[in-house]
Amino acid sequence: MPRTRRKPRTRVVAAISAVSALGLLVGCSGGGERTGGGRKDGKVTISMGLYGVMGFKETGLLDKYMEENPDVVVEAEIAGDEQTYYTALQTHLAAGSGLKDIQGIEIGRAKELVDTQKDKFADLSGVKGTDHFLPWKQSQVTSGDGKVIGLGTDIGPMAVCYRKDKFEEAGLPTDRDEVAKLWEGDWAKYVAVGERFKEGAKGDKVAFMDSASGLFNAMIYGGPQQFYDKEGELVYADNPVVKDAWKLASKAATSDLTAKLRQFQPGWDPGLANGTFATAVCPAWMLAHISEKAGEANKGKWDVAKAPKGANWGGSFLGVMEDSPVKKEAQELVAWLTAPEQQAFLFQKQSLFPSSRTALESPEVAGAKSEYFNDAPIGEIFGAAAREVPEEQVLGRKDGTIKDIFSQGLTLIESQNKSPDDAWNTTDERVKKAVG
Amino acid sequence: MATSTSSPQDRTTGTGPPPGTDPGVKRRRRGALLHRLDVKGAPYAFIAPFFVVFAAFSFYPLIYTSWISLHRVELASLDFMEWVGFDNYLALVRDERFWNALGNTITIGVLSTVPQLLMALGLAHLLNYRLRGSTFFRVASLTPYATSVGAAALVFTMLFERDFGMINWGLSLFGFEHLDWENNKWAAQAAISVIVIWRWTGYNALLYLAAMQAIPRDRYEAAAIDGASRWQQFTKVTVPGIRSTIVFTIVLSTIGATQLFGEPLIFGQGPNGVTGGADNQYQTLGLLLYEEGWKSYQMGRAATVAWAMFLLLILVFVVQRLVKRFVARKA
């Protein structure tokens, strides 16, 4: 009878849908693994969470480590964008799951992690063979009580990249030593050279620099403190370093010396290729980007000169999680990856500038020249800049966010015709809101 | 069904002799209970998947968001929530960024919705004619809708670029030089509206077309006999004939406009996308929420924006109902 047959079927369907509903609920509450790594059959698996182009996987360093240590398997997961990576890292830290054994730390986040999450990271201060870093690099990830949550990978010492051909057209010297002499010791001289460039340039199609924020960044990242003081208080409003940088950058913006572009945003890349600006303040890691975007056609037109003052923009660290089941092995891997030899190797492969003092002094770094940039002695230029950075640089919790807000403040002057005072007030208000 | 015939019997056994004596009665009672459960419970089991998913992914987040919005919470320390009551809401109402974002959401919404629906109406009217390769044109008008927001917005962002963009190159032929689309408030909002219009016009046109094809031909014939021109046929026969579809598309576009997020985010590129321009000149409510949550990492304030958006939608709904009732009473 169809009636009796239908009944069990409805029951089965009902049961299935109820069970699947339950399954959905259970699925949500899953998880519980501590970190990615573990031990199995005498093999140690170490997981890494990285972002951007840190170079470890790309250059085959991880493979090399696995070859030298046959009982170790390294699994690296790389997020393209650091912002996405950090958001995920924060949720993983808060939830206590989904973490890797080794996590990359960007300099803009270092302070926040030291302040709020240092218990979750293993202390690396005692790891053997890690006393070769630049002093200011390791101070950025050292907590008040001396705990070190990461080991330094690369840094971003700054120089000025400039177009030789545009300088020649404007009647300025083109040799990199003479160019560096023009602005030696003072960023104000750099802006003064800009005025000379503007007078001498033929036509008004070429601006002296790409953006006012590039100049601003270079100036503040040469100082011992930027937006915060050691106690973690916001001091940007009274910090002479920030005030001077703002004044000079807004002067450059209002006297039409900039191409009104934003670095790494649309318009900037074709600007590098087509020469809409003659100079850009460039950290070492930017060289790879410039040579790629400006292309083979502009080889030899770009050159690198020493910046008025040494400064550092960017850089990363590798930290090990305290809860990792393979903590010791992960620490060894981190120490190896950040060792002088590997840093020098990454510099040659990816122009990631070493944070290790020993690597800086090695001949393959100190004597390095860039073919694309007219054989500029980049090892020497950036190495000198790295050594000029103050011994201790105070970082703040929201450095990355505040830097973006200041860049936008300068855009208000450059592209929206706001007065520097108005723009400062807006910026001030925004910083307070973002931090508050 | 099988149920209705047996249920009176069940009831009589329920009120029968004391339980536990006869195993036959026991079995029958268990059977009856299972049967009752089957009858009363099965429908709930059938609808359970939807409601469980809804509760887990919509209702619970909604409630939890409101709880978060009453606290000061940062993403880095989610376990640590500081009770602040309605401070977040008060701060939001006093924050000019909120009113700016609300204004931008409305202006971009109008700029994108009105031309989009008018163009869709015209396009549908044209597609409704008998023409060669009509299927091709109908499919072609739907392709923008099938493109992802990201791809479309990226391409348009390149087209609207200041120095080397194709649109500025085209304008320069007419003597307009270097229009800075991103930094000019109305230019930026117009550019974002263009992306929205490009993506959604064809979709709406197909909805209109489907409705138009349901209008009986004899109405047009009658109108033609009465001497109505093509235009009069369009305004007097076609538009009234698809009125309910027009209302539907207006509702859909309005919802879409209040949620506008991806296009301006990509249009601004990087930090400027999150804040909707250096001067917040095209920051929508969706972007403000994102800025609070994923730039400042202030979860409490982001949740507050989310709830403010929700309350605004409810307000719009209530106002719309009141107006409707008022109009109906007048009529």
TrEMBL record, chain B:
* Domain ABC transmembrane type-1, residue spans: 102-323
Matching Gene3D superfamilies: MetI-like
Q: Does the keyword Membrane apply?
A: yes
Q: Where found?
A: Cell membrane
Q: Which residues form the signal peptide?
A: none
For the region Disordered, give the residue spans: 1-27
Q: What is this protein called?
A: ABC transporter permease
Organism equals Streptomyces albidoflavus
